[in-house]
């Protein structure tokens, strides 16, 4: 599929999606969000794709924020719709995707960019990465899940400080906070993410999808995460992957999961 704002390349069971607006520091606009939704949907529906990596083009930014020019003159209703539609179309969509998503943060991840990274299942940052939610400096708050996901990842107090000061943290501080899992030199960032993706792809995609669902359930109001875990655990016993995994273990060989 031809895109105007992103690149999507699939190889060896891994789809790498690159936001390609370097002149705008890869800022998110409506068209980019729409294209990202399409690319993630296509990759998720392809049973040969085991992991998705998302990054930004160039060496300066993952995503430097939302394209402010698109909503600077919005009213209350338009602002609410912007947040609701964006969350449904992309940010919540990624968080609940069956296919694991790794954010390769290759520079600035600010505002909507950090919110995009936080919606991924985990994050790897380059040494030059800078992260923050500067929305209050514009008279608004994060609207793509930032006030919810940041406290989940770094704790309430740290999230309050980051959002209230509108400041940035560097990769080392993000690692200390638990916001990112690893730090790598920029030239090695995608290689390291691909190595992690290969490790993931050796395991049961069916079980991984069930684990994503169970883990996410713990962070949803009104949902019993333990109950979801029990249900998903039981469901695994009815899969071909479970039969293959247990048979391979008992026969002391590597499993070849069919993804069913």
- Largest sheet descriptor: 6 strands, mixed
Radius of gyration, CA atoms, in whole angstroms:
19 Å
Q: Give the oligomeric state of the chains in this entry, treating copies of one chain as homo and distinct chains as hetero.
A: single chain
Give the mean pLDDT: 95
Low-confidence stretches: none
Please tally the helical runs, counting DSSP H or I stretches of 4 or more residues. 10
What is the strand content? 15-25%
Shape: globular
Number of strands: 10
- The arrangement of helices and strands along the chain is EEHEEHEEHEEHHEHEHHHH
CATH superfamily of the largest domain: 2-enoyl-CoA Hydratase, Chain A, domain 1
CATH class of the largest domain, named Alpha Beta
CATH architecture of the largest domain: Alpha-Beta Complex
What's the structural domain tally?
2
State the end-to-end CA separation: 27 Å
Q: What structural category do the secondary elements indicate?
A: alpha/beta
- Measured as a percent range, the helix fraction is 40-55%
Strands of the largest sheet, in order across it? 1-2-3-5-7-10
Q: Predict the CATH topology of the largest domain.
A: 2-enoyl-CoA Hydratase, Chain A, domain 1
Notable traits:
alpha/beta, 10 helices, 10 strands, globular
């Amino acid at each position: 599929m031809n895109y105007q704002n992103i690149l999507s390349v699939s190889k060896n069971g891994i789809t790498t999606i690159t936001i390609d607006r370097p002149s705008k520091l890869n800022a998110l606009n409506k068209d980019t969000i729409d294209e990202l939704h399409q690319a993630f949907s296509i990759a998720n529906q392809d049973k040969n794709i085991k992991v998705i990596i998302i990054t930004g083009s160039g060496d300066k930014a993952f995503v430097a924020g939302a394209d402010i020019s698109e909503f600077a003159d919005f009213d209350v209703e338009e602002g609410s719709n912007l947040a609701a539609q964006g969350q449904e179309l992309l940010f919540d969509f990624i968080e609940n995707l069956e296919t694991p998503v790794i954010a390769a943060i290759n520079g600035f991840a600010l505002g909507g960019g950090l919110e995009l990274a936080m919606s991924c299942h985990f994050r790897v940052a380059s040494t030059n990465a800078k992260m923050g939610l500067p929305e209050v400096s514009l008279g608004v708050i994060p609207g793509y899940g930032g006030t919810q996901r940041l406290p989940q990842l770094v704790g309430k107090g740290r999230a309050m400080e980051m959002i209230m000061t509108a400041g940035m943290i560097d990769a080392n501080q993000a690692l200390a906070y638990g916001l990112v899992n690893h730090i790598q030199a920029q030239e090695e960032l995608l290689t390291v993410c691909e190595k992690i993706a290969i490790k993931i792809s050796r395991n049961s995609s069916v079980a991984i999808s069930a684990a994503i669902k169970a883990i996410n359930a713990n962070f949803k109001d009104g949902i019993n995460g333990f109950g979801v875990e029990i249900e998903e655990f039981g469901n695994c016993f009815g899969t071909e992957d479970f039969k293959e995994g247990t048979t391979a273990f008992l026969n002391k060989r590597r499993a070849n999961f069919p993804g069913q």
